[in-house]
Amino acid sequence: MSSSTHWNSTEETALINFLVEHRAEAGDNGNFKKSVFERAATHIAPLLTKGPPKQCRSLQNKWAAFRKTYRTVCAIREVSGWTWSDTTGASIGPETSSTWDDYVAKHPDAKPFRNKAWVHFDKATQDLEDNTAAPAPTQQDTPEDDSSSDNEEDALAAPVSTGKRTREPTTPAPAAKRVRASAGVSALQEVAASVARFGDVLAAALAPPPVLVNPTPRHRLDAIAAARKHETWLHRFQLLALIDIFRTDVTACDVYLSLLDDDELRVEWVASQINLPNPISSFV
pTM, whole model, 2 decimals? Predict the structure, then answer.
């Protein structure tokens, strides 16, 4: 049994830089041939600090892990109400911790990025921006077996049918000469169809989760429109102060919109946000 594979940050950075430099050799799905990974292994070999030298299989697994992390970070960056930072990741604070916990319960791969960014995101974007599908190496590029601790699954390749459909002859051929598909061919066709369906399911499972809430700009526009309609008791400069709050704080937009069905509570909340004195009955 071979020793566990250990990656240091210098090796990871060198691998991404190498693949970015050779991205012209990537296929339509963003994956690379085995020969590219073999050259990359030679390239990063001097950076080894622990464990055995890395083989092609280890690099392929690491690249698959990078692609999975890239999709995870892209999905986080699209969630309304969170502010992504290249330093603090999703930048989750007390006001957004509950929505983060709900999200991580459904998407556990997002957990490391609560308040920590992915250092390789900008560089990986150069390779993966247009190629976020799950990798699918061809049969001739399938790596040799190489045990490592990289916790990644091998990509699956759906078989490609090469059969050609022939035109039926005008005059039926004698029954004795009719070509019939063997049981083995039929079985292989059924297996190919089953693997293809599994590939579709796998692709759907790895796709970034849909954003189920309105984008942040939509929240701001809705809140401002509602304020102009309902807060007619405010002076113009006070309404502008409220709008400025909506412009910088999407959470305030959400709270305001949720209070539209309670006029008294909404008015008190608005007054507290723009620092009007209590009681506020004289302002309404």
Answer: 0.45
